[in-house]
Structure formats: structure tokens, C-alpha cells
Amino acid sequence: MHRLAGEADFLQVFDDADHDGNVYSFLPNCKQPLQAMVIDFVEKEKAGTIIPLNNVNDRLEAILGISNKSVKRLKAEMRETLAVEKEA
């Protein structure tokens, strides 16, 4: 499996979201696991990108099924969590 720089830290934030095995519990309207949502989106892009790769927030909105405001809040929370962990 190929990992991007920082991917392990990013995934750890999601893993820490819920220790009961629900890595998608921070998404209140989520009906399926985060992994399934990502796979579904990527499968739809087999013929070409649906949303340009440089539109990160728009892509996250589509993948996670949440609003742009929620994407921004989630990213800020993730950055804060990673910064606190680096200080420790």
C-alpha cells in the first residue's frame, strides 16, 4: 500500500474519532463507513475526475457528504489535533 506524506497522521485523527470501531462517528449524517464513501467516490472517477484535484474542499464535500462549512471545521480540528500531538 502506498501512503502519502502525513497520511498516517491524518488517518490517526479519524481512528481516534471513536474507539468503538466507528471511524465515521464524527460525521453525524453518515450512513456508511468512511472507507466505503471514499471507495464509492473513487470508483465513480474511473473515467476521469468528477471534481478537479486542486478543489480539495469540494472533493471532501462530495466524498463525505457534508457541507463546505463542515469540511472547513473538520480540517481545522484535524490541524489543531495534529499540532497538539506534535507538542506532546
UniProtKB/TrEMBL annotation:
<protein>
    <submittedName>
        <fullName>Uncharacterized protein</fullName>
    </submittedName>
</protein>
